[in-house]
Design a protein that fits this description.
Order of helices and strands: EEHEEEEHE
Number of helices: 2
Number of domains: 2
Largest sheet: 3 strands, antiparallel
CATH class of the largest domain: Alpha Beta
Radius of gyration: 27 Å
Distance between the termini: 73 Å
CATH superfamily of the largest domain: wza like domain
CATH topology of the largest domain: wza like fold
Strand order of the largest sheet: 4-3-7
């Protein structure tokens, strides 16, 4: 027994064809994809590294170039062959690019990965006449 699928159906007393519904859904999906692409995190919205943050920095295919570093109170950090570099106020992507540029003097086409291990920034302190002053 072969059953046929209805070509139209009713929603709130409105007759709608399957083709019109699919076309509407297709356009809705396209506009949703466009909205998602436009609301991606831009460089200005990305998390900015702050003093006290702990970063893990690694260079691909270089086993000796993996370090966990602490961003100093002055905002700087140190990494082998790079020396001191300003990390505070930079995004992870910008710091990775800056380290790769400095390493390119010693390593051809370095692939640098910077990952956040611990976020220590954005602390709020409560002071004054409160029950529990502090962080």
């Amino acid at each position: 027994m072969v059953t046929s699928f209805p070509r139209t159906f009713r929603i709130n007393n409105m007759q709608i064809s399957i083709r019109a519904l699919l076309a509407t859904l297709f356009l809705l999906c396209q506009s949703l994809q466009l909205a998602i692409a436009e609301t991606g995190v831009s460089g200005s919205d990305a998390y900015k590294i702050q003093p006290g943050d702990v970063l893990e920095i690694s260079v691909w295919k270089e086993e000796n170039m993996i370090r966990t570093v602490l961003v100093r109170p002055d905002g700087g950090m140190s990494f082998p062959l790079v020396g001191d570099i300003q990390a505070a106020g930079e995004s992870v992507e910008k710091l990775s690019t800056a380290i790769a540029e400095r390493l390119s003097k010693y390593i051809p086409d370095p692939v640098v990965t910077v990952s956040m291990q611990q976020l220590s920034g954005n602390k709020i302190y409560v002071v004054g006449k409160v029950a529990r002053p502090g962080e």
